[in-house]
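Sorry, any thoughts here?
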Amino acid sequence: MKKVLFVVVGICLVASPLFAQGNADKTIKIGAIFSVTGPASFLGAPEEKTAKMLVDKINAAGGVLGKKIELIVKDSAGDPGKAVSFAKQLIEEEKVLAIIGPSTSGETMQIKALCEESKMILISCAAAEVIVNPVAKYVFKTPQKDSQACTWIFNTMKDLGISKIAVLSGNDGFGKAGKEQLEALAKPAGIDILISEVYDKQATDLTDIITKVKGTAGVQAVVNWSIVPAQSIVAKNIKQIGLNVPLFQSHGFGNPKYVEQAGVAAEGTLFPAGRLLIADSLANDHPQKKLLVAYKTEYEAKYKEPVSTFGGHAYDAIMIATEGIKKAKSTDRDKVRDAIEGLKGLVGTAGIFNFSATDHTGLDLNAFEMLTVKDGKFMAYKK
């Protein structure tokens, strides 16, 4: 009897790793690094909510290739050091197929090389163009390019007869990258930057910098390139000191909470963005409308808060990963990477994605609209 018991136990011990492996093979692990808490939570919180909502929807419909998606979310709180630590954990311990996020450009740039060296698919939810320029084989991103946002801003300025501007930017990765693009593209667009100021990303009052701008003769408009909290602060300070020129924000302004924080000071703000924020006003035959309205309706019904473009970045990242798996008909990482790079005509929240070996954003100028704030709401800008 003891001998039989020993054999049974032995079989269980040998079989248990195989059983665990069998369970693991029934799921597809996707890691996510979001700034769910901390100063960039306006980015990461809607990203986490969206990713979980979409994965639940995919799993309820049968998963991908007959397997459920296992989403493993890490909250970096916007800290690049934590992002690196979590990326290593997801790669080495969790052995995920792909990582989506991080939320910010600074965090993404900290883990870009690690993912490339580890041959780990990274689909960033951050916007800085340097994430994908130069192209890294395993690194993609979902927000539109900085250079495209600059082009929209400068084209709108031309329509308004503006040629002399002030540039303000945060000292984070997104601010630095945007400043570089603005300065590189201004001259070719016929725009003169009369003053350019960099401020601390955690600043709570920028009156001194805005006062310097007001004292610079000839400034016809201000461009601010930053993430929270400065986007609202710049608008308030401009209003407070009576600087009566148009305020342009980057494509990082696409969250209704920024408008709430700035209050009446946000009125008239101009910024390029995808069409999610104006989904209901799109023509019924617009190729993005069905997806945008469905996502907006589901998100707002589930979470009782307005949808933002940032949640949309996570939506697109999950969708790109899963469409890559479907196209590859495999969970082999290299095959999925190749499939993602070959995705064409993929309708997302940010635009219609057409990836290639030389373009790991996959969006063109048509992914943007120029939006403005009127009566506390976002709407398409009309001259």
